[in-house]
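Progress note, sequence design subtask.
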């Protein structure tokens, strides 16, 4: 039900856009019709997590200001009233269901205090979650509420601990994202699968570096962008918006079959142009 088109590089995606122009235009027109009222609205569809028909809630929050051309944030809104997951999270669960191995060990989710983790738990998945809690708790330890502390650049799990990894919108908050990818590969079994999302610019070959460390300071190359963080009310700085280079980073970190996956589905409430998740497999030796 989720339409997925996969690309190994930017060239393949450009070719796809040329070839699929009528379909992409059809999707865009449908989205324009849905949002034409410029007021919060609902759209009927099917939540794959709740396994029932629902009215997804769409508003114009985080939509970049109100203007005549204002479009909803299709990625972060379109929320299921029952499980609370947005379109990006529901698409990730759909893909994880179909494409991650579920019989090779638990699945590591790089978040714990979120509706996504709760939803996967309610589905009965064998999962392990963590948050980055800084110095409050030792790495690998748990806070008073039982949440495990992990730093993606130096995970405390033994190598080959997991059959799959789901990491959604975390990587852009890790300055040394290359080390994080290496660690995610290390903790997977050979042939284990990774499902990743992060802010992605399909028009860019190279990453957009928004901020970098200069001595002990943070140097901002773009206006500071903070994302919601369940462990910090101040939010979390996004150091990057990734470009197609991310696929090379995945290969360098020990993954094969790295693909950008474009997803869309009217029925599942997954709208918007250029909505991507990334999949890769730990290269078997
Ligand atoms: Zn739901």
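Output:
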């Amino acid at each position: 039900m989720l339409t997925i088109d996969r690309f190994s590089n930017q060239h393949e995606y450009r070719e796809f856009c040329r070839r699929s122009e009528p379909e992409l235009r059809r999707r865009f027109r449908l989205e324009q019709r849905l949002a034409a009222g410029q007021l919060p609205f609902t759209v009927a569809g099917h939540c794959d997590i709740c396994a029932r028909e629902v009215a997804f809630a769409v508003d114009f929050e985080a939509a970049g200001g109100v203007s005549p051309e204002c479009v909803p944030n299709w990625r972060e809104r379109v929320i299921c009233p029952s499980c609370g997951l947005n379109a990006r999270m529901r698409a990730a669960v759909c893909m994880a269901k179909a494409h991650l191995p579920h019989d090779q060990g638990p699945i590591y989710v790089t978040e714990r205090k979120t509706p996504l983790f709760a939803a996967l738990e309610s589905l009965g998945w064998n999962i392990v979650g963590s948050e980055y809690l800084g110095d409050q708790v030792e790495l690998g330890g748990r806070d008073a509420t039982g949440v495990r502390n992990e730093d993606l650049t130096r995970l405390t799990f033994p190598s080959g601990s997991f059959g799959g990894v789901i990491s959604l919108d975390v990587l852009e908050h890790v300055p040394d994202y290359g080390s994080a990818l290496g660690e995610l590969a290390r903790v997977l079994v050979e042939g284990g699968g990774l499902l990743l999302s992060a802010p992605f610019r399909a028009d860019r070959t190279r990453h957009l570096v928004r901020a970098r460390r200069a001595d002990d300071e943070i140097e901002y190359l773009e206006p500071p962008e903070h994302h919601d963080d369940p462990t910090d009310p101040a939010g979390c700085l996004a150091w990057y918006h990734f470009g197609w280079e991310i696929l090379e980073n995945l290969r360098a970190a020990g993954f094969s079959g790295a693909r950008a996956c474009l997803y869309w589905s009217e029925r599942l409430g997954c709208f918007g142009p250029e909505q991507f998740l990334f999949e890769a497999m730990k290269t078997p030796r």
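The mean pLDDT is 92. Work on this subtask will continue into the next period as scheduled.
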